[in-house]
């Protein structure tokens, strides 16, 4: 039987990841009620950072072997430039690994440069791993097709050496493009949605949808102030924020949230939790902070949005807690659609705020009569190559979907980004929704 010491480094990293993952599940199952909220918050975040790093270690070993070890026998291995290259690759990997720990130690009103650099390296790391794997697979397929009878020659060695060079070049180009795309203000996407049973007096009601702002290590007060200015310029009747507003505790990042107090939609501003609010373990304080800015959290509850033209006309705006609250066993929280829709008459239009598209799917299975569901969470994948995974894992990905005869689901690609300050294959968005009466 092979001992742990005899295992290759990649296998050791996989075992470590398994141990950390098991400890996370154990914490959720058995320690949730024994630890106070603040301690649980730190334990959970530390475990998530360690789990991500142990998984990344396998990829980092592959990156090092592909970009450094492969060239140690070349004529340039003893040159000063090669020494600089080894230092650069090591620093790149170290920054990528440190990104997850910035959530614990480097969150303030504005992002620290270190956090921006670390998360940029994380984004580049993901792209580089993809290209190394893809080019390696192409190389193996080529060898299989030409047959093993061909002798390894200079041409084969050159092709092998070109693989990491090409992967690094593609990564550099896409990283720059991704950074430039994410640095642009969110695009304003105007959408018209017919809402069954919406009163005629509320035809052309304008609603602005925000999602996934992720105030934290790489998004601060300046970007939020820009978003608020753009929303105010649209002059919406109502503004809704469908989760993942923050990645930090309310007390730590309160100064960055102040621009939200300038939102002044006449029919109100409303908020529902996303999964990242529960990762902060500080939801109650966030609710109080948002209320101080005249933003109403919808905690499995609803409000009547009354027509400015007739007090007899209204529709029901409901919001549910994010489904991650159930997974984390967050006391007093969890998706409860029946409670959220209590008092919503079937004779009136129902608009539901639910952060994750899977929650939208579950809501429609339980209550097919909901007329419109607004979600976020997917980020449109945010960066290539994560787009494919986000598409496959969510029943609704990005944009407008018609479900059945009178129901629509709209999924925002996010108003900012999570951590990695890059966008590839997706675009940050402020959604301007015009509700149409049939």
Automatic annotation (TrEMBL):
Pfam families: Metallophos. One of its GO terms (molecular function) is hydrolase activity. Residues 206-380 form the Calcineurin-like phosphoesterase domain. Gene3D superfamilies: 3.60.21.10. The chain crosses the membrane at residues 12-30, 42-64, 84-106, 112-135, 165-183. Keywords: Membrane, Transmembrane, Transmembrane helix. InterPro entries: Calcineurin-like_PHP, Metallo-depent_PP-like, Metallophosphoesterase_sf. This is TMPPE metallophosphoesterase. It comes from Formicarius rufipectus. The gene is Tmppe.
């Amino acid at each position: 039987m092979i001992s742990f010491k005899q295992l290759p480094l990649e296998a050791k990293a996989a075992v470590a990841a398994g141990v950390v993952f098991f400890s996370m599940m154990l914490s959720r199952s058995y320690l949730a009620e024994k630890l106070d909220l603040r301690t649980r918050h730190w334990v959970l975040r530390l475990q998530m950072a360690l789990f991500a790093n142990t998984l990344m270690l396998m990829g980092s070993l592959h990156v090092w072997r592909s970009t450094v070890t492969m060239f140690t026998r070349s004529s340039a291995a003893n040159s000063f430039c090669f020494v600089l290259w080894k230092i650069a690759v090591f620093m790149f990997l170290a920054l990528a690994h440190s990104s997850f720990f910035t959530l614990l130690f480097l969150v303030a009103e504005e992002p620290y440069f270190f956090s921006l650099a670390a998360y940029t390296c994380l984004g580049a790391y993901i792209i580089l791993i993809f290209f190394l794997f893809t080019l390696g697979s192409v190389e193996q397929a080529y060898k299989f097709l030409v047959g093993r009878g061909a002798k390894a020659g200079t041409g084969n060695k050159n092709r092998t050496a070109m693989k990491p060079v090409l992967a690094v070049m593609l990564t550099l180009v896409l990283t720059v493009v991704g950074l430039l795309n994410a640095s642009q203000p969110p695009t304003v996407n105007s959408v018209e949605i017919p809402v069954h049973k919406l009163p005629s007096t509320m035809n052309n009601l304008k609603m602005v949808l925000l999602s996934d702002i992720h105030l934290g290590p790489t998004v601060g007060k300046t970007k939020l102030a820009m978003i608020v200015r753009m929303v105010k310029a649209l002059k919406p009747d109502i503004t809704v924020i469908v989760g993942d507003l923050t990645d930090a505790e309310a007390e730590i990042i309160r100064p960055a949230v102040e621009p939200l107090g300038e939102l002044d939609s006449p029919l109100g501003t409303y908020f529902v939790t996303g999964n990242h609010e529960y990762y902060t373990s500080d939801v109650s304080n966030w609710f109080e902070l948002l209320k101080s800015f005249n933003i109403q959290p919808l905690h499995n509850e609803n409000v009547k949005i009354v027509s400015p033209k007739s007090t007899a006309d209204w529709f029901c705006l409901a919001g549910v807690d994010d489904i991650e609250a159930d997974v984390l066993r967050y006391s007093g929280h969890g998706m409860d659609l029946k409670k959220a829709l209590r008092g919503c008459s079937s004779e009136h239009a129902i608009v539901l705020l639910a952060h994750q598209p899977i929650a939208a799917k579950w809501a429609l299975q339980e209550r097919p009569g909901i007329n419109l569901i607004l979600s976020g969470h997917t980020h449109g994948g945010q960066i290539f190559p994560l787009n494919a995974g986000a598409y496959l894992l969510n029943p609704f990905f990005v944009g407008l979907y018609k479900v059945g005869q009178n129901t629509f689901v709209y999924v925002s690609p996010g108003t900012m980004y999570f951590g990695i300050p890059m966008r590839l294959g997706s675009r940050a968005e402020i959604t301007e929704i015009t509700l149409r009466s049939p």
